[in-house]
């Protein structure tokens, strides 16, 4: 595979992942909590967990933005290496998100998660 083909393939993957991340970010920003039912208890622990999650998300977003700026200014192998780093970060974020979803499902369901069982197949 030539370097150009590899660059185009990596860029295509990165653009696809960023496009999905952009849609998710827009959906999160427009998410409205005002309709939360009164039965949904907001405990201090949940509020703290939510704030920690939001802080971590913002830090990941800033890291990706920095990497993209680096990629935009790079050429040749440096650009390819930065693209590979971006893809690794996006994959790591996806894996972390899945693990958190499994953990939340287990907590809410009070037992082993079907998501976890499916992921192990």
Description of the structure:
The structure is a single chain. With 121 residues, this protein is mainly alpha-helical. It has one domain. The longest helix has 34 residues.
What are the defining features of this structure?
121 residues; mainly alpha; 4 helices; 81% helix; 0% strand; elongated
Number of helices: 4
Overall geometry comes to elongated
Query: How does the helix and strand content classify structurally?
Result: mainly alpha
Radius of gyration over alpha carbons? 18 Å
Report helical residue fraction: over 70%
Biggest β-sheet, characterized?
none
Distance between the termini: 32 Å
Question: TL;DR?
Answer:
This protein is mainly α and 121 residues long. It has one domain.
Break the fold down into its secondary structure elements and pairings.
Elements lengths: L2 H27 L14 H30 L2 H34 L4 H7 L1
Helix pairs in contact: 1-3, 2-3
């Amino acid at each position: 595979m030539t370097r150009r083909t590899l660059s185009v393939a990596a860029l295509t993957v990165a653009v696809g992942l960023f496009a999905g991340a952009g849609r998710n970010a827009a959906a999160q920003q427009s998410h409205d909590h005002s309709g939360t039912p009164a039965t949904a208890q907001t405990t201090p622990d949940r509020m703290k967990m939510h704030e920690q999650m939001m802080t971590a998300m913002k830090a990941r977003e800033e890291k990706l933005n920095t990497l993209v700026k680096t990629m935009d200014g790079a050429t040749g192998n440096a650009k390819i290496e930065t693209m590979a780093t971006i893809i690794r970060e996006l994959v790591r974020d996806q894996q972390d998100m899945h693990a958190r979803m499994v953990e939340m499902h287990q907590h809410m369901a009070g037992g082993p998660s079907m998501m976890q069982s499916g992921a192990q197949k």
